[in-house]
Amino acid sequence: MMPKVTFKSHQGDVREVDVAAGRSLMLAATINGVPGIDADCGGTLSCATCHVYVDPQWIDRLPAMDDVENDLLENTACERTGNSRLSCQIIVTDELEGLSVEVPERQF
Amino acid sequence: MSGLLIVGGSYAGLNIAASARQHGFDGAITMLTEEAFLPYHRPPLSKGYLTGAVDAESLPLRGEVFYRDNQVDVVFGARAEHVEPEGRVVTTKGTFGFDKLAFATGTQARRIPLAGADLDGVVTLRSLADANHIREKLEQTSSVVIIGGGFIGLELAASLAKAGKPVTVLEGLPRVMARVTGPVISNFVERRFAAEGVRILTATGVERIEGDQGKVTGVRDSHDVVHAADLVVMAVGAVPNTGLAEPLGLASGQGIHVDSCGRTANAAMFAAGDCAFGMNLFAGRDMRLESVQNATDLGKAAGAAIAGRTMPNLSVPWFWSDQFDMKLQMVGFSQDAQQEVVRGSLEDGKFSVFYLRDERVVAIESVNAVSDHVLGRKLLAVDHRVSAAMLADPAFNPRDLIASKVATA
Q1: I need a surface site. Which of A13, A17, A41, A92 has the fewest CB within 10 A?
Q2: What integer pLDDT is reported at residue B1 of this predicted model?
Q3: What is the pLDDT along chain A (108 residues), one digit of tens a residue?
Q4: Nearest CA distance, A41 vs chain B (angstrom)
C-alpha cells in the first residue's frame, strides 16, 4: 500500500507524494526531493533538521513522541509549536493516508 | 559557460550543490563521484546497514528527483586524475570544464603497512561497497578482530557482537576514543562493552597479521598474543584526499586549506568536508574535522560562497555515535578543558560530562542525555559564566545560563 502524504512549503507550494507504508515521513521527503527537510543525521535522533509542523487535524492521530524526540525538538531552527514533530519519527502507515504537514522556513 | 564542478559525491558535495542553488547560483552544476551511487548516509554503514535493519533504499541523502529539480548533473564512476588550473579536470570518464571548482574529496581509510595487511579477510570500512563486502563475508565469519578503538571500531564491534560474532578490539592508546572523548566516557564505554562480551585490549598494538594460503587467520598483538580471526577490520583513522589540490599549491598533508567559508587561496576554488583544513570559528584555530555536521555545514558555507554570498560556518561542532544501547553525543572540544563535572547518573547510564575552561563550558560529552546535548549546542554559542561548583549542584539547571532562545547558526 502506498499512502499519500502532503507537504506544504511555508510559501504555500504543495507537494503530494506516495510513501511506501513503513517508511518515515523524513525519508519520503528526502527521496522525493521535497525541499526544506535537511535530515542531517539521517534519522538517528541526533539533530533536529527534519522538523515539520503537523496539520492540527492530524497531530493527535500520530503515536506519541518519546523523550529523545521531545528533547531534540527544543533545538529546532524555527519556533517549536504544539504541532512540531521530527519527521524521521513519523512512520507512515495506511491509517495515515492523507497526512498533511507544513515544512518550516528553515532547518538551521 | 562551464559552471560549477564538484569533485566528490558525499555530504560536502551534496550540500555545496544544494546551497549554491539555494543562494542563487544558476550556472551548470556537475558532481563527479567515484561512487556508483548517489551521495548516501554513512553512519548506517557501521550499524543498521550491516545488521540488515536499514536497507539500501533509505541510504541516499536525496533521491534522484532532487538532482533533477536542482539541475545537478551527477557523473558516476568518475575518478578525477588532475586539475588544470585554467579550468579543466581530467577524469577516468572524460575531461570536464569549470568556472568554479569545489573539492569534496573526503578521506580514505588509513591502512597500516603491517605484514599480512593484504591477506584476504583484512578490510577497511569507508564506503557502501566496503560495507557490502563485509556484509557478504559475515555469514562465514567465525571471529573478528578490529584494529582501532575509535568511533568506527567500536560501532562495528557493537554491531558484529549483536550479530553473534566473537569480537576483539585492539586499541594502541591507553583508552578507547582517546583522541575524541575524555576518560569518563572511555571508561564507561569500556565497561559496557565488557558487559556485552566484547574484548577490548587497550595499550595494545599490532605486530603482524597472520594467515594461511592467502587468508587471514589471526592477529599477533604487541604483547605477542595471537587472536584468531577470519575477519580483520582496520579502523585506525582516515587520511584526507588532497592529491588533486596539492599540485595547485592549495593543500598540505593536513588537508586542503580553506577559510571559514570554504574558500581556498584560488578565488575559483573551494573545499569542504573531511578533506578541508581551515579556520574553525568556534574553536578559533585551524583544524580538519571529520564529521557529518562539519561536512554539511562547511559545504553549505562553500555553496553560498560559490553563489557570491559570504556566510561563514559558525556552527558549534557536534558529533554522535550509537554503540549498543548508548547514544553518545558530543558538542564542542574537551581537549583544552581545565575542569570537568559529571551530571546525571553513571549507574543509570544517563549522564553528561561538562568541560570547563575559564569558567565557560567548552564541551559536553553525553551518554543517553539528549537534553544536555541539545542545550550544549546553544550554550556553547553564547557568552556565559559558570563555575564547576555550580554545575556540580544537581539543583542547578544549566538551561538558566541561556538568557534567551538563540537560533543555531
Answers
A1: A13
A2: 54
A3: 789 999 999 999 999 999 999 999 999 999 988 989 988 888 888 888 999 999 999 999 999 999 999 989 988 889 999 999 999 999 999 999 999 999 999 887
A4: 7
* Whether B300 and A108 lie within 8 Å, measured CB to CB: yes
Q: Identify the segments of chain B with pLDDT beneath 70.
A: 1-2, 403-409
Asked if the Cβ–Cβ distance from A42 to B371 is below 8 Å, we say: no
Q: Where are the domains of chain B?
A: 4-108+239-306, 112-236, 325-408
CA distance A34 to chain B (A): 8
Query: Which residues of A are less than 8 Å from B67 in CB distance?
Result: 33
The yes/no answer to whether this complex scores an ipTM above 0.90 is no
Judged by CB atoms closer than 8 Å, whether chains meet at B370 and A68 is answered as yes
List of chain B residues whose C-beta atoms are within 8 Å of the C-beta of residue A48: 374
Predicted local confidence at residue B405, as pLDDT = 44
- For residue B42, what is the nearest residue in chain A, using CA coordinates? A42
In this prediction the pTM is 0.94
B371/A27 touch (CB, cutoff 8 Å), yes or no: no
Best residue of B23, B292, B318 to probe chain A, by most A CBs closer than 10 Å? B292
Q: Residue A69's closest chain B neighbor by CA?
A: B370
Domains B4-108+239-306 and B112-236 in one fold: yes
- The pLDDT score that the predictor gives to residue B341 is 98
Query: Any chain A CB within 8 A of the CB of B68?
Result: yes
B325-408 maps to which CATH number? Answer: 3.30.390.30
- Say yes or no for a CB contact (<8 Å) between B370 and A71: yes
Q: Please provide the CATH number assigned to the domain covering B4-108+239-306.
A: 3.50.50.60
3-state SS of chain B? CCCEEEECCCHHHHHHHHHHHHCCCCCCEEEECCCCCCCECCHHHHCHHHHCCCCHHHCECCCHHHHHHCCEEEECCCCEEEEECCCEEEECCEEEECCEEEECCCEEECCCCCCCCCCECEECCCCHHHHHHHHHHHCCCCCEEEECCCHHHHHHHHHHHHCCCCEEEECCCCCCCCCCCCHHHHHHHHHHHHHCCCEEECCCCEEEEEEECCEEEEEEECCCCEEECCEEEECCCEEECCCCCHHHCCEECCEEEECCCCECCCCCEEECCCCEEEEECCCCEEECCCCHHHHHHHHHHHHHHHCCCCCCCCCCCEEEEEECCEEEEEEECCCCCCEEEEEEECCCCEEEEEEEECCEEEEEEEECCHHHHHHHHHHCCCCCCCCHHHHHCCCCCHHHHCCCCCCCC
pLDDT at B403: 65
Domain B112-236: give its CATH code. 3.50.50.60
A41 lies within 8 A of chain B by CB:
yes
- Per-residue confidence (pLDDT) for residue B59, from 0 to 100: 94
Contact status of A16 with chain B (Cβ, < 8 Å) = no
